[in-house]
Amino acid sequence: MVIFVKIEGRPLVEGKGRGKLLVSKQPISFYGGVDPKTGIVVEPGHELEGKSIAGKILVFPHGKGSTVGSYILLRLKKNSVAPVGIVNVISEPIIIIGCLMSKIPLMDMVEIDVLKSGRLAEIVVKENGAWLEVFDL
Amino acid sequence: MYLTKEEERILDGEEGEAKSLAMKTVVKVGEALGAKRLVKIKNAHISGISYKNIGDAGLEFLEELVKKGARVSVPTTINPAGFDTKQWKKMNVDSEFYQKQMKVIQAFISMGVKPTLTCTPYLYTKLSLGDHIAWAESNAVLYANSVIGARTNRDGGPLALFEAIAGRAPYVGLHLDEGRVPEVLIDFENIRDILSKKKLYQVAGYIVGKIAGNRVALVRNSGLNMNMQDQVKLFLAAVGAAGGTGMVVLPGISPEYKEKFDDEVSERVSVDETELKGILEMYGYREPEVVVIGCPHLSLDEINSIVEEISRKRGAKKRLLLFTARWNESSLMKFREKMEKLGIEVYFDTCMVVSNLKDFASKKIVTDSAKAAYYLASQGYKVRLVSRMDALKIACGDFREN
User: Fold this and answer.
1) pLDDT at A137
2) Residues B105 and B23 in one domain
3) What are the chain B neighbours of A74 within 8 Å (beta carbons)?
4) Minimal-distance CA residue of chain A relative to B24
5) What is the total count of domains within chain B?
6) What is the distance between the alpha carbons of residues B162 and B151, in angstroms, rounded to a whole number?
7) Is the peptide bond before B296 cis (omega within 30 degrees of 0)?
């Protein structure tokens, strides 16, 4: 397995995770938008509706909706159906705090247009740097 | 980000693990938002209290903070919970939910929080122009910034908790002078008369929220003034439900309004009657069973005028549910029998949005709150949105469709 592409971003919440990419061009509201028990996106009409974010590296532009969303990330983690990492164009407080509380690696300032769902990838976030490595199968 | 020596010491854990974690979170968020430093806050208000929303994970998280010795550093209050802590049985709350919710409240009390359980802290907390605070709960954020001139960003529930523990907030956004300048002017000149005749300011607020998005908005010709606090509350709550902004500037009400704002905005929008009608149609359910009022929580004055009005109309024929803060319980004691006779039910500590309204009332409701209409409709309720006057008429069975 070789690295197909490596993308750098801004480190926000430290950690490391490996999983398949799940990419959304639309923003995500965790409160009301994702079932905390199953990790399945339930927002009607959302491009990820019906898909599971469990174990994925979840890629989306930014969060939206209620600030209870931070607690939903925590509930996902406790139920073992959280994403293994999150990549944003720009993260706002709901996502940053949710990831800090539930220890989900988070980076932002990434051009997400080049990323495609289904590819295996690894997210590494350290104090002084963050990158996403997408593998060539 | 620049940190003072004291802040660095807190970050390094010299004032305990919990405060260090709180400081770390506030700094992370501040850095992400581009803050150059933190600002000390005088007061905090936390949302995300209902067990229905935060679940076991939220409860465990709060209890862990307590175990780590977390204490708030400034006077801190909290939003409504999932039920009235005294009348919970009447609300068909099961005992598991009751116990879990009480544990959530207890965790906050252990951290030194005042369990006010109301979304209207601005009615009970003394604040001044220019005070820096950290409030969650969008209607309270809008009231603090727009009416009092206190400064807070629209923080989320957990962020406000961390800010309360750290005693600081990122010095960014609405904390800064330049963050409080309106970018868009929204003008109600065309429907000013309709708004004032039909008392549909909450619908105007909903329109403002939609247009403003995340921007500070200057609102012209709303017809609102400070003698109409009830309408100002409904208006601002609607702004917060429909949009992401934490501040609107209302000439005559907002202490920070300056004439030059009118020339400096980059966009001007004029609202007409079509938009007003569109929203009333969206929440136009014709057969509501229960009338719910109190989003935001009613003030004592508001309850008094509702009781008077219902008394004039000789009592309610439909169930009429009012929601308010526990603060008002003792003042209302003397009316208890009168209200019961008039068919008025008063609930404390909770509201129609965060409780399981359908379990003790109905899924078909009428309200005067555009915020409640928005959130209840998104939970599958059938909703009619009208002015408060019309809501009371519907309650008493003397409302005529026009």
Assistant:
1) 65
2) yes
3) 57-58, 61
4) A100
5) 3
6) 17
7) yes
The answer to whether the Cβ–Cβ distance between B61 and A101 falls below 8 Å is: yes
Say if residue B83 is in the same domain as residue B213: no
Alpha helices by DSSP H, B91-226: 95-110, 138-143, 157-166, 192-198, 201-212
CB B193 within 8 A of CB B224: no
**Inter-axis angle of helices A69-78 and A93-102, to 10 degrees?**
30
Is 90 exceeded by the pLDDT of residue A49? yes
B263 lies in some domain: yes
In a domain, B209, yes or no: yes
Same domain, B249 and B298: no
In whole angstroms, give the CA distance from residue B216 to residue B249: 7
**Dist. CA B370–CA B364, nearest whole Å:** 15
Which CATH number is B149's domain given? 3.30.499.10
Q: How far is CA A72 from the centre of its chain?
A: 13
Size of interface A-B (CB pairs under 8 A): 75
Does B53 sit within 8 Å of A68, measured CB to CB?
yes
State whether B275 and B287 are in the same domain. Answer: no
Domain end residue (candidates: B226, B248, B280): B280
- Does some domain include residue B401? no
Q: Are residues B191 and B312 in the same domain?
A: no
Residues from chain B that touch A65, judged by Cβ atoms under 8 A, are: none
Q: What's the N-to-C CA distance of chain B in angstroms?
A: 59
Burial track B222-233 (b if 16+ CB lie within 10 A, e otherwise): bbbeeebbbbbb
Calpha distance A30→B57 (Å, rounded) = 14
Q: Would residue B402 count as lying in a domain?
A: no
Looking at the partner chain, which of B28, B58, B378 has a beta carbon nearest the beta carbon of A100? B28
> Token pair 């490391």 is at which residue?
A16
Q: Identify whether residues B300 and B274 lie together within a single domain.
A: no
From chain A, the residues in CB contact with B25 under 8 A are 97, 100
Which of B25, B46, B379 is best to mutate for the A interface (most A CBs within 10 A)?
A: B25
Domain-terminating residue out of B280, B307, B337: B280
Identify whether residues B72 and B167 lie together within a single domain: yes
| CA–CA gap between residue B148 and residue B133 (Å, rounded) | 12
Mean pLDDT of successive 10-residue segments in chain B (402 residues)?
Answer: 97 96 94 94 95 90 96 98 97 96 98 98 97 95 98 90 98 97 98 96 96 94 96 97 92 97 95 96 96 98 97 97 97 94 97 95 98 91 97 95 76
Domain of B211 in residue numbering reads as 181-280
Instruction: Summarize chain B as % helix, strand, coil (round to 5).
Output: 45, 15, 40
| Residues in CB range of A137: below 8 A, 6 or more apart | A1, A119, A120
- With a CB cutoff of 8 Å and minimum separation 6, the contacts of B107 are B59, B62, B63, B65, B66
Task: Give the pairing of strands A85-88 and A106-108.
Answer: parallel
Contact B376, B385 (CB under 8 A): no
Q: Are residues B166 and B269 in the same domain?
A: no
